[in-house]
Amino acid sequence: MKNKAFLLLILLMGSHLLIAQDSKFRLSVRFAPNIASNRVIDENESDGLEFKSNGAGVRFSAGLNGDFYFGKNYSFYTGLWYSVFRNGLKYTGSGQYAGHSGKSVFNIQQVQVPLAIKLFTNEVATDMKLYFLIGGTLGLKISEKEVEWETSSTQITNWAPGKPKKGKSSSFGDVGLLLGIGLDYQLGEATAAFGGISYNRGLLNTASNNGPFIINNQDSDNFYTMGASLINLEVGLKF
Length: 239
Fold this sequence. Notes:
By secondary structure, the chain is mostly beta strands. The chain has 1 helix and 9 strands. Helices cover 8% and strands 61% of the residues. An 8-stranded antiparallel beta barrel has the order 1-3-4-5-6-7-8-9. β5 (100-120) and β6 (128-153) form a beta hairpin.
């Protein structure tokens, strides 16, 4: 149902943008495989539990873009994207938690709206322009999927971290910083191809109050906070 609702949003937005299209507007489709990772801050280094990021992985983002030009080399850039993030966390214990460890990975699916300014250079070669992107993103979680969740202990104790309910390991969404650079290549009078690289850095804590590990029935931010990051390799067509 959520996937059908997302597809409907894409179609509605595409229809609206096509109706609005004129010489000051360009619609584009975007596909962006990415390296997804997250930052982890251990909020209490003296509690006997050390929290770190559990690596990175390949994910993807795709959707529609709109460039609203307010000058020859300037545009307001927005769109609607389906993006997959990776939340990975691991911990090791010492002191009263000696011998305890665990790790988790969740795929977080978001609908994202980029809001940015795109700056174009003059032609650097025939029909080619560089562009620079600076702005932000608004993201709303639509689903999450458990990839890995496990705990272990070399000691027999009564303590173990809890597992959040299905779909409750991460927060409802995120606000992010968006930076990018790329190349526009004009293919014809009304069509262009583009390719580039962008960095999307989440600014909010993406862990929920209860996840991905519930420690002593307390809010997770007493122990750790998490921030998402995407490095996107973007390609697409502009119309």
